[in-house]
Design goal:
This protein is α/β, with parallel strands linked by helices. The protein has ten helices and 14 strands. The protein folds into two domains: 8-85 and 195-268, Rossmann fold (3-Layer(aba) Sandwich); 92-191, Hypothetical Protein, Haloacid Dehalogenase-like Hydrolase, Chain: A, domain 2. It has a six-stranded mixed β-sheet with strand order 8-7-6-9-11-10, covered by helices on one side. A five-stranded parallel β-sheet has the order 2-1-12-13-14. Helix 8 links the parallel strand 12 and strand 13 (232-235). The two termini are 15 Å apart.
């Protein structure tokens, strides 16, 4: 039996696995390879669509499917398909129309199974366009007929974010959806009952892993649910205070090889899984 047999390790990407310069440290990469070689399952659960997660996948070579869409999907790159996925009802387009008409400064994109449609752009949307592996598809929201998996809004100021949240929260259909602030500039409409915690549970179920043997680490609001439900939950030192509050442990920052530090904690017996 190997050291990490039966353990499923799930990391967030931005602010956790990634350094501030959007790279993965050699220490982290070496630790991940060691963890996998000793029987551990290592993967990531991200707010991103699988389309824009391929570079990360190729860098760390997970030996388990990934969680994507803020826990709304489990995607298997080897099979090239979703193993499980939640979808938005068509009524979500009513909320999109409301934002489109009343908040013209806010950019947004629609995520579907195998594409991302950029329906309105602004400066905050530029990063999301830059990570596309193929030329971004620009179109009017009313021309999208695919089933929507999630909607991502991009704002440039905190005032815009507040106006967006207020507008969505007072909508008559607000209770039919989940909303999450996935970063300072991004706010999302998700299918009801979607979270990274739900994604982690589904991934563990599909892999036949006991939740007590799961490890999760993150830094932001959308990571709280998976840190809370994991058998062992970590927050990085640069995490928001509300994230640290639900974690079992606070580790090094994303710029100080946090993933390697956690794997060392498990390897040394400092943390028992």
């Amino acid at each position: 039996m190997k050291k990490f047999d039966g353990i499923l390790f799930c990391t967030d990407i931005d602010g956790t696995l990634y350094n501030d310069d959007k790279t993965i440290s050699d220490d982290n990469l070496q630790a991940i390879e060691y963890f996998k070689s000793e029987g551990g399952l290592f993967t990531f659960i991200t707010g991103r669509h699988h389309i824009v997660s391929g570079e990360i996948y190729n860098a760390i070579k997970p030996n388990a499917p990934i969680g994507c869409l803020n826990g709304g999907g489990v995607y298997d790159y080897k099979k090239g398909e979703f193993l499980w996925c939640k979808t938005l009802p068509q009524s979500a387009m009513e909320l999109v129309r409301e934002v489109h008409e009343k908040l013209p400064a806010i950019g947004y994109q629609l995520n579907v199974e195998n594409n991302i449609y950029f329906c309105r752009n602004n400066k905050a949307m530029e990063y999301l366009r830059s990570v596309m592996p193929f030329p971004p598809v620009d179109c009017d929201y009313s021309d999208v007929n695919d089933t929507i998996l999630k909607v991502v809004f991009a704002v440039e100021t905190e005032n815009e974010m507040s106006a967006l949240i207020d507008l969505l929260n007072i909508h008559p259909m607000a209770d039919d959806f989940d909303f999450i602030r996935s970063d300072l500039e991004y706010y999302e409409i998700l299918p009801k009952g979607t979270s990274k915690g739900i994604g982690l549970k589904k991934l563990a179920e599909l892999m036949g892993i006991d939740m007590k043997k799961t490890v999760a680490v993150g830094d932001y609001d959308n990571d709280i649910s998976m840190i809370s439900v994991a058998g062992t939950g970590y927050a990085v030192a640069n995490a928001k205070d509300n994230v640290k509050a639900v974690a079992d442990y606070v580790t090094a920052s994303n710029n100080e090889h946090a993933i390697a530090k956690i794997i060392d904690d498990i390897d040394s017996g400092k943390v028992l899984i």
